[in-house]
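Reply to dn_fold:

You asked what the input looked like. This is it:
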Amino acid sequence: MECTVYIRKDYGGFWRRIFADSIDAIPLGLAWGAVTEIFKRIIEIYKYSAMTDLFIVSIIILILDIVIFLAYMVGFKVFMGETPGYWSLGIKTVAINGAAVTVKQIVIRAISSFFSLLAFGLGFFWITIDKNKQAWQDKIAGTYVVRSRAMPVRTIEIPRRGLIRTGLFALQFSTPFVLIFIVVSIIVIMVMLKIEDSFSKLQMAINEKVHGPDHPDVARSLNRLARLYESRRKYDEAQPLYNRALAIREKALGSDHPDVAEPLENLARLYHFQGKYAEAETLYKRALAVWEKVRPDHPGVATVLENMAKLYKKTGREGEAERLEERAKRIRLKNR
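and this is what came back:
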């Protein structure tokens, strides 16, 4: 296979590429921040607190961030020739045969950059010792980074096997770091989930001892533990905890207090997941009545309406579901 060769000073150096990547990190950071803010709002609306729920939300955010990163790289390199960072620093990405990079190479290079990063950044520092100043992602994708006006000085023939071996070397060298990162992450998550379970039970036991079994703080601990069980699909263990939390708040605060709406919604959602639609609807309506007494356009009203709409769709009541969704939208717009 033919490969182009440039004079060494025409290859994009480590610091030039770092500055270019830093410039590209600005719009990417703003986009990633917007995604995070949207999901923070979702967490607030739906009152997610269990670590399992937060972990799932974090995975969704990570996937969306990767999609944004790939779209940014492909979009700018295909339609604009280069990203703003590379363009402003006067460098470009080219295929090792001197041709323009393909979409496939852009995607492979972008994904491979995560391998370079997860290996404690070693894949990027490889630029400083490589004769062609290639990072690992360049070797894997078959690309160079060169100055915008650089011209190849000659073309050499390299066996395709040699190029494949070079790419595989970078991939094999980085893979153990990635696997270690994944394994450590799984272990940390499992330990944290176990700690959360134990902590929630301990917190409930302490509140019961300090405040007595019918104190609102005990109800808060019960809700948290039940939410944890619910997120792990342990519905039979979550249900009695939600029921007890509801009974404590009704006794301490009265059946019309806004704090009673939370356990009502939690229990309704649990029945909803279990397919007990009649019981769920009854509790949703009770929660709705509580929020409407606070204020007919309270965000809590919108949340209950949205959940009821989902239930009605499950039971084939599309017309009622649409009316509830429209009302929920009006409330959301009013509370912006």
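The first strand starts at residue 2 and ends at 5.
Hope that clears it up.
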